[in-house]
Amino acid sequence: MKKIYKKLTPILLFSILFGSSLLAQNSGKTEWFDPNRPATTYCNPINIGYNYTTFNHNRIPESRRSSADPVIITYKGEYYLFATNQAGFFWSKDMSDWNFVYGSFQRQPGDDDQCAPAAWVVNDTLFYVGSTWKRDHPIWKTADPKSGRWTRHVDKAMLPTWDPAIFQDDDKKVYMYYGSSGKLPLVGVEVDYNTWLPKGNQADYAELYKATEVEDIQKVYGQVKEVAILDPSAHGWERFGPNNDMEPAPWGNFIEGAWMTKHNGKYYMQYGAPATEFKGYANGVHVGDNPLGPFTYQKHNPMSYKPGGFVIGAGHGNTFADNYGNYWNTGTCKISIKDRFERRIDMFPAGFDKDDVMYSITAYGDFPIVLPTSERDQTKGASSGWMLLSYKKPVTVSSSEECMEVETHRMDNGGKKVYEKFCYGPENLTDENIQTYWSAKTSNPGEWLQMDLGRQMEINALQINYADHKATQYNKAMDIYYQYKIYMSDDAQNWTLVVDKSKNDKDAPHDYVELTKSIKARYIKMENIHNASGLFAISDFRVFGNGLTAKPKAVASFKVDRNKTDSRNAMISWKKQADAIGYNIYYGITPDKLYNSIMVYGDNSYDFRGLDKGTKYYFTIEPFNENGIGTKNKIIEVK
Fold first, then answer.
1. Which ranges carry the F5/8 type C domain (predicted)?
2. Residue 60 near residue 110 (C-beta atoms within 8 A)
């Protein structure tokens, strides 16, 4: 490695490392990093400026960021991302660099802005509506979304739609789908473009327009049709609970997040289940020949599923085609510590195979993924091939917060709030657990972390996942950003400045940095310069590239034991390997459709409760480490 910093006196070294601009360039450009160069990859969670919740949101006083329920659509050749309570939305030219546009519809300081919004291009105009159980809400539209200004297409849309979706068919007819319930189905109806009222005799909707209870609002009236409902007694993944294990479900098994995709003349009715706070939150799909059905449960389900890894959860999103015709599926991933609705957004390669089976590939879905530049086959995903180098690597830090008892608001304990002891030590920086984090004692410039990879490795990218520890920000502010520098070394004494974000002014809480060229190093050091809110705290400091030694050997003793009493469940086991850091389990309905995967770190078994009764499955497994991916095992048939 090129040496920039030699051995210096402590005072001079501190001056250079923690504040000197002698070697830093105003642009932030270094030999390995250029902030103005478009990325070729991205990494989940999507790196947008997630809004902080309003004060005392859900009666929880802690400040925290959150968003969920994403919709990404293309409009005039660019990508627009709408999501829950963001005081606006985001746009991008490349699906990587997202720019915020302020566009709030909040009426009172404690109100939600837009929950689970719907967006769709109708007659070349961008339409937008949020969730509501109330009547008399507007439908907005704009032909210039970057302005942040919207006009009202109608002042009073009478459908009280929660988790809405808008769809315009090729014949220009417009449909609304909606619903979020542990008991009732998702429903849909054709609406009149001019009035946005449901088609048919309005007298048939009189009871709907008067209804005040959710159970009455989401029923079928007039020309409203049932489009999807859960069947957890047959579909294991649709069961409520942290591991699909709460039967009976205390509030029901939730279906929500409607979305419609048309492909090859078929209509794919997408939905999220069973609940946003669980690792098994996934997107399923029913298929029909008409926009209002009837629909049939697709045999390959869930169609987007990510219960393991750093990013956990893939439910309640949408499916869209990029500018090259490739499909992508968006979803909601969980943190669920400060609030069970503490969430982030993810996005995975998706598509329709030769048999028109809808799929989404989440394998290595929280490692760098290659952005599209042309139409391509995505049945194997779009992984960059850069492996995780940072797992369980030792880290030293400038300071650490003390352990404390914290009231958590996750629902993993039978729906009850519990107090848990949380520690904020450096081991949390490399544990691949988005629910834990390290925190320094201050947010001062000069707080730092230093990682030892154990040997020289080739580094291509980094992801810095900030945590909201003792944050004081609520709702949107336009002066939220992070600044830092990253140095690398072979001996922890002579350091090279690799990434300079000392002039950054963009909010990037899951900052993904793709290097312009790889660099070989053993040690990595990050120095805080400016923190957005609260203490300098990071969930995981993730490093990607290649370890430059041997890939792991194939897995031995791989078994899938399907439960004879309840065929929705199976215990998967294998022999743990010293040369592997993790494993990907693949499964599907035929040997050539192993689209779903489960990532497991540091274990030799997985209690899988996401199978469908009456369906034969096929399984395989592969190990991975810093150097690459091992050979897949022979595929196992599981009846």
1. 429-546
2. no
Phi, psi angles (nearest 5°) of residue 18: -115, 15
Determine what percent of the chain is predicted with pLDDT higher than 70: 95
Tens digit of pLDDT for each residue in 110-123? 788 899 999 999 99
Mean pLDDT for the chain? 93
The letter for the amino acid at 159 is L
> What whole-number distance in Å separates Cα of residue 65 and Cα of residue 337?
11
What the block records as the tokens of 339 is 């609030």
Residue 481 corresponds to which tokens in the numbers above?
């950003």
Element (H or E) spanning 15, and its range?
helix 10-18
What count of other Cβ atoms lies within 10 Å of the Cβ of residue 425?
16
| Cα-based distances in Å from 116 to 15, 71, 129, 258 | 48, 8, 9, 10
* C-alpha closest to that of 555 among 636, 617, 624: 624
Structure token digits, residue 283: 């997107």
pTM of the model: 0.94
Residue 251: count of CB within 10 angstroms of its CB: 14
**Interacting residues of 396 by C-beta distance below 8 A, sequence separation 6+:** 426, 449, 450, 452
Distances (CA, A) of 184 to 52, 230, 291, 343, 478: 31, 9, 19, 25, 40
In whole angstroms, give the CA distance from residue 59 to residue 66.
15
Confidence of residue 8 (pLDDT cuts 50, 70, 90): very low
Spatial distance between the Cα atoms of 308 and 325, rounded to a whole number of angstroms: 29
CB 35 within 8 A of CB 26: no
Contact criterion met (CB below 8 Å) for 65 and 341: no
Q: Which residues contact 174 (CB under 8 A, 6 or more apart)?
A: 122, 166, 167, 168, 190, 191, 192, 193
- Please state, in angstroms and rounded to a whole number, the distance separating the CA atoms of residues 76 and 328: 18
Mean pLDDT lowest among 33-47, 358-372, 410-424: 410-424
pLDDT (mean) for 189-206: 96
pLDDT at residue 414 is higher than 70? no
Residue 31: closest CA among 499, 361, 359, 387: 499
CB atoms near residue 107 (< 10 Å): 8
Question: Residue 206 has what DSSP assignment?
Answer: H
pLDDT band at 55 (very low <50, low <70, confident <90, very high): confident
